[in-house]
Specification:
Elements lengths: L8 H11 L5 E2 L2 E5 L2 E3 L4 E4 L7 E4 L2 H8 L3 E2 L2 E5 H12 L7 E6 L3 E7 L2 E2 L31 H4 L1 H12 L6 H7 L2 H26 L3 E5 L10 H11 L11 E3 L12 H9 L5
Parallel strand pairs: 1-6, 2-7, 8-11, 11-12
Antiparallel strand pairs: 3-4, 4-5, 8-9, 9-10
Helix pairs in contact: 3-9, 7-8
Length: 276
Amino acid sequence: MDINKEYKVNDFWDFLFFAIKEINEIEKLCFALPGVVDPYRLYCIDCPNLDYWKNIDFSSLYEEGRRRGVRIKKILVSNDCNAGAVGVYKILRLQNKNIVYIAIGTGIGGGAILNNKLLIGANFSAMEPGHTKIYKKSYICGCGNWGCIETFASAKALTIYYNSKNNTNYSNLLSIIKNEPQHKVKKLFSRFSDYLSTLLNNIIYFFDPDLIFLAGKIVFSSNLFEKQLIRKVIKKINLIKNFDRKRIVLLNDDLSNNTGLNIYNLVGSVFADEFL
């Protein structure tokens, strides 16, 4: 199901228990949320792009399940990009690799596994790369600030920018790609590559990971930006000689398909507790 910003949590609970009404016992009930999550308390602190998803205690579902006749043995709640990182790590069998996972969609999220542990942070806000700053105004971010890099290099940002420059009214990036002249689309993605390469450059200098994975629907248009993105990343990394371009991996495979069903996130949400 597609949960948009207007979707309320109680509606989701109703949908959830309707979906599992034939099940008497659940081994693990796992959630992956696009926001700040305390995985130890099973608590959603805030999802900036979902208006009603904040201050939610998922541990209450144990009692709610009992009330509705379902025994839930374990609940896991993860940030969706942390789950994505775990899913990549498990599915691709990346034992003892340090990895960073970046998802580019409405915003830009991230997860990292370093020394076989998820990087969570003191306030559960580690790896929020979309909210690092570019000192230039675009539009106000879902977090309430100006200058967040996701207001320049996300699918939403590209759509807003293109509409403002071309007096169009597209609702999403895919419509622009399908309907607009190729030279305009390439120019749009060249700008995108400038900002995303800056973000990747910062990540490389902060963590020097073995691998950086790029995921999200925008990656399925990688033919429009992959070569120039890698070239721009390498150009900016002066301190690392002979940077291996294979360290940046675009997940445009069937496991992260463009229907929104991301198997990496699903698998990662189930095994995230192994990396806490």
